[in-house]
Amino acid sequence: MESRIEDVVIIGSGPAGWTAAVYAARARLEPLVFEGAPSREMIPGGQLMFTTEVENFPGFPEGIDGQKLMLEMKAQAERFGTRVVTDDIVEVDPSSRPFRLRTAEGNVVHARTVIVATGARANWLGLDNEERLAQTGGGVSACAVCDGALPAFRDQVLAVVGGGDSAMEEALYLTKFAREVVLIHRRDTFRASPIMAERALEDPKIRVEWNTEVSEVLGEEFITGLRLRDTGTGEERELEVGGLFLAIGHTPNTGFLAGVLDLDEAGYIVTQTPWRTETKVPGIFAAGDVMDSYYRQAVTAAGTGCMAALEAERFLAHQGGEDAGHDLPAEPVAAEG
């Protein structure tokens, strides 16, 4: 990898990354995907690897397991010649052409175009049982739109943690399925916009637990309740619930891009033109949740992965491909004396 010039390097392995790989591979660009190394926060495949059933991805009328969906996407990309490396890219140097990328293992990769599809990770409370149940499909989720309609949550008392617009949207969405929605907020006022807060407060299915935080998630195979703590008095009590949804934000995986690309105040990549994927650096494109703080759905991520691959292909066509797939020229040897 250190001597070859890659046409397309894709960083990330969620729906955006694998879709970009399928399109780039079918265009005979021989993409190289860095799917990431497993860690406590993320694993190759992204957030869908923590989702047991996906019912809103087109083409699967009976739904599909999140892990199976990601493995199928990966297999489809590999079928057309995509190469996959289980490592992280930790540095991107845009100052030279081709771009110089460094991996966590210390390898150097050169690429004429780069598609960043590293996604965003949901913010969690950091409770042991919360993370365990989220990973095993035990009724803890960070996406009501993704999971709220599942049969396990219907006619249940569901809890939503948060106080911003996202929490209000999640709570209002869940009223379609839940018997009751309990909004849990650690302060006595919402951070949400007035109109969103008003809608939530006026909904007869929603009640609010003010000045309250979750101290423990209860349940073995599936969530059975929450231990709540009063933020003023410290008093604790239990609340029976059939589901917990976290709406305390997401953190885009863009730490390695600080100073390289334009990022907004939350860390999401800013693209140059709405509905396009090119960043401020020509030849570097962004796809999926890493550049989308609004929709954050698997199907929209896949769509932007397609867009990024098409833009990368056109960029390469316009730039010419005389050195694509070839080795870098040898470094000149200084004459002695």
TL;DR of this structure?
The protein is of the alpha/beta class. It has two domains: 5-121 and 250-319, FAD/NAD(P)-binding domain; 124-246, FAD/NAD(P)-binding domain (3-Layer(bba) Sandwich). The chain has helices at residues 15-26, 66-79, 128-136, 144-147, 165-174, 194-202, 298-319, and strands at 5-11, 32-34, 83-85, 89-93, 99-103, 108-116, 120-122, 140-141, 157-161, 180-184, 206-209, 212-219, 223-230, 236-240, 243-246, 250-252, 284-286.
Characterise the protein shown here.
Strands 1, 2, 3, 4, 5, 6 and 17 form a 7-stranded mixed sheet that branches. This protein has a 5-stranded parallel sheet with strand order 8-15-9-10-11. Strands 12-13-14 form a 3-stranded antiparallel sheet. Helix 2 links the parallel strand 2 and strand 3. The protein contains 7 helices and 17 strands. The chain folds into 2 domains: 5-121 and 250-319, FAD/NAD(P)-binding domain (3-Layer(bba) Sandwich), CATH 3.50.50.60; 124-246, 3-Layer(bba) Sandwich (FAD/NAD(P)-binding domain), CATH 3.50.50.60. Helices cover 24% and strands 24% of the residues. It has 337 residues and is of the alpha/beta class. Helix 5 (165-174) runs parallel beside helix 6 (194-202). The protein starts with a strand and ends in an 18-residue tail after the last helix.
Reconstruct the topology from this structure.
Blueprint: E1 5-11, H1 15-26, E2 32-34, H2 66-79, E3 83-85, E4 89-93, E5 99-103, E6 108-116, E7 120-122, H3 128-136, E8 140-141, H4 144-147, E9 157-161, H5 165-174, E10 180-184, H6 194-202, E11 206-209, E12 212-219, E13 223-230, E14 236-240, E15 243-246, E16 250-252, E17 284-286, H7 298-319
Parallel strand pairs: 1-2, 1-6, 2-3, 6-17, 8-15, 9-10, 9-15, 10-11
Antiparallel strand pairs: 4-5, 5-6, 7-16, 12-13, 13-14
Helix pairs in contact: 1-2, 1-7, 5-6
